[in-house]
Amino acid sequence: MKKYLVILCMCIGCLFACQSDSSLSKTAKQPVKLIFMTDPHYIAPELNDGGAAFQKLMSNGDGKYLYKIEEITEAFVQKCLETKPDAVLLGGDLTFNGAKISHEALIEKLRRIEEAGIPVLVIPGNHDLGAYYDARFEGEHYAIVESTKPDTFREAYADFGLNEALMTCEDSFSYVYEIRDDLWVLAVDTNSNQVGFLSEKTLAFVREAQQEARRRNAKLLLMTHQTLLSHQVFIPGMRIENAAELLDILDPEDVILCLCGHMHIQHVSREDGFTEAASSALSVTPVQYAEIMLDGHTLQYQTHSVNGGLAAEARAFFKTQAYERTLAGLKENTDEETAELLAETFTEINTAYFEGRNDPDIPEGGIEAWGKYGQLTGAYLISAALEMREGEGHQSFILEY
């Protein structure tokens, strides 16, 4: 009997020792590695045969390299499994137009990451909730398929943030996830009630979450789909419609960094004490994600392509599409030589700007030509070029907090 008591005491001691170690690791201010990815616009293989209808859609699109989105998404999953971050954050537009089949296929991929012991945290984007047509592309035709509504999304993705959340919002897919006791992710859904707009209940939830974080001496990483801050004035409609109300609630002393997508441009904006990193779309050149390291009071942000070969293919597709579409729109309004100069200049600056680089290979006389040609496109390019000449690159930065 005495022997069994000794064994029982030893087991209880081991149990409490294990609990103690887990608690220490949760509360210790040890380094944290996170991955942030956004806008994959994943489409399940069974919805796309790569035929004429899909090719037409892509040729009229915004440079998303969806021809290889299956390989790109798989490469991202493998990166997560190899690098083993403390959590993976996904900033919305998970699927191409919200088809239920695409969500289901993507969820199976995300489960592989979670099964490896890596939490996956998601929010919906404007393309995830049936806001656009959801279709299957076959040959020269397309057919409408079942879409995903907010309630369906909430149920399908409950295991990716909500079910493990410290706090949840009843009015949207917004929640707080505790990375460490002093570091929380505040995931704010800007699309479930109205595209790009926060309801009063969601704003109230943000206020409550910030107050609770402050009470517990925790800092926040904010995750939204649309941007909180202004980034590129010549690309309208990227910002949360009532962003000013959210900014009135948030305190930059509590928020380390804001993470978002939607723009498809790799860009960093700083305003009123906040820093926001808009990550480029996984589906667009150079098919990249961001790795975020927090150690002490230092945050390091660095982008990485999921695969060099896929990045090269996506860049070639993006540049070809940009050049051909720009050239076609210019030929009617100017001579062929000038049109080619304008199109080449647009392609080089726009590609570098989307990738977050500051080293475009601008043809001689190209900026001046766009200055004379004018139009909103010219203003956008000149603004981007001036930003790059000031040395602004947006693929990496360091924050002290």
Q: What topology does this entry show?
A:
Layout lengths: L1 H26 L4 E6 L14 H8 L9 H15 L3 E4 L9 H16 L4 E3 L12 E4 L2 E4 L5 H7 L10 E2 L6 E6 L2 E5 L12 H16 L3 E5 L19 H7 L5 E6 L6 E5 L2 E5 L9 E8 L2 E8 L2 H23 L5 H20 L10 H8 L1 H15 L6 E5 L1
Parallel strand pairs: 1-2, 2-3, 8-9, 9-10, 10-12
Antiparallel strand pairs: 1-13, 4-5, 6-7, 7-8, 11-12, 13-14, 14-15
Helix pairs in contact: 3-4, 8-9, 9-10, 9-11, 10-11
Question: Could you characterize the architecture of this molecule?
Answer:
This protein has about 400 residues and is of the alpha/beta class. The chain has 2 domains: about 30-310, Purple Acid Phosphatase, chain A, domain 2 (4-Layer Sandwich); about 310-390, Serum Albumin, Chain A, Domain 1. It has helices at about 1-25, 50-60, 70-85, 100-115, 150-155, 200-215, 245-250, 310-330, 335-355, 365-375, 375-390, and strands at about 30-35, 85-90, 120, 135-140, 140-145, 165-170, 175-180, 185, 220-225, 255-260, 265-270, 275-280, 290-295, 300-305, 395-400. The strands form 3 sheets. Strands 6-7-8-9-10-12-11 form a 7-stranded mixed beta sheet. The chain has a 6-stranded mixed beta sheet with strand order 3-2-1-13-14-15, with helices on one face. Helix 8 (about 310-330) packs antiparallel against helix 9 (about 335-355) and helix 9 crosses helix 11 (about 375-390). The protein starts with a helix and ends with a strand. Residues about 1-25 have low confidence and may be disordered.
CATH superfamily of the largest domain: Metallo-dependent phosphatases
Largest sheet: 7 strands, mixed
- Assess the beta-strand content as a share of residues: 15-25%
Query: How many strands in all?
Result: 15
String of helices and strands? HEHHEHEEEHEEEHEHEEEEEHHHHE
The Rg value, from CA coordinates, equals 23 Å
The strand order across the widest sheet is 6-7-8-9-10-12-11
Number of H- or I-type helical stretches: 11
Alpha-beta content class: alpha/beta
Question: Based on the structure given, which CATH architecture of the largest domain is correct?
Answer: 4-Layer Sandwich
Global outline: globular
Number of domains: 2
